[in-house]
Amino acid sequence: MFKQKNKAIENNGTRPGLVTISKPTAVVSEQFRTIRTNIQFSMVDKDLKTLVVTSAGPGSGKSLVSANLAATFASEEMRVLLVDADLRKPTVHRTFHVKNNDGLTSVLTDKTSELTDMIYRTYTEGLYILTSGAIPPNPAELLNSNRMKEITKEMEGLFDLIIFDTPPVLAVTDAQVMSSKVDGTLFVIPHGRATKDEVTKAKELLDMVGANVLGAIFNRVSAEDDKYSYYYANEE
């Protein structure tokens, strides 16, 4: 279906940081499956097609959470697209060892570009990625454009779930822009790094745009068998 099939990722099946693929029986992998289940229950009365993952500040691990969560949903026989919507400090291309010459910004700025030409099909069944493309001077404006609405609609027709990895809320307005347009938002809180004031302020900014915050994921929590653990808390 995708014209980019010939650009499937070639890295001997390894996924840096994707413990859900490299160690599916690990404690952390099971926690991601629990998070997936909780998200599904939180959206029981509505289809979940688009999801934003963000945090209060940098260094939260939100990009690895996004990637592992995408892989976890894909393992449930879903077609999942992970979109690098962090148009300032993109990371998806590094996580999956692909080039970032073109991507989301290509289809946003060039209407002759085909979305399907920009999408990579990974070796993980059902998991696809769209890198950020060239870093633009106006990320927030691009994400808030009518063109972005059109592209998102096209994505929804191709995939069961689209996960957008966005910048931190307190740094720029990008996450607010995207959170106002999707079905749900997940908030990543790194243990011992994010202050209560930062988290509260970020939540207030998301509330201002009417974001549907499904819950928070606490990461970087020590556990006996894994370097990091992830815990999900429903939004009250």
Structural class: alpha/beta
How much helix is in the residues?
A: 25-40%
The CATH class designation is: Alpha Beta
Could you tell me the CATH topology label: Rossmann fold
Cα Rg: 17 Å
Strand order of the largest sheet: 3-4-2-5-1-6-7-8
What portion of the residues fall into strands of 2 or more residues? 15-25%
The total of beta strands comes to 8
Q: Spans of 5+ residues with little confidence (pLDDT < 50)?
A: 3-16, 224-228
**CA-based shape:** globular
What is the correct CATH architecture?
A: 3-Layer(aba) Sandwich
* SSE string, helices as H and strands as E: HHEHEHHHEEHHEHEHEE
Question: Could you describe the 3D structure shown?
Answer:
This protein is an alpha/beta fold and 236 residues long. Helix content is 36%, strand content 19%. The chain is built from 10 helices and 8 strands. Strand 7 (213-221) and strand 8 (229-234) form a beta hairpin. The longest helix is centred in the N-terminal third of the chain and has 16 residues, at 27-42.
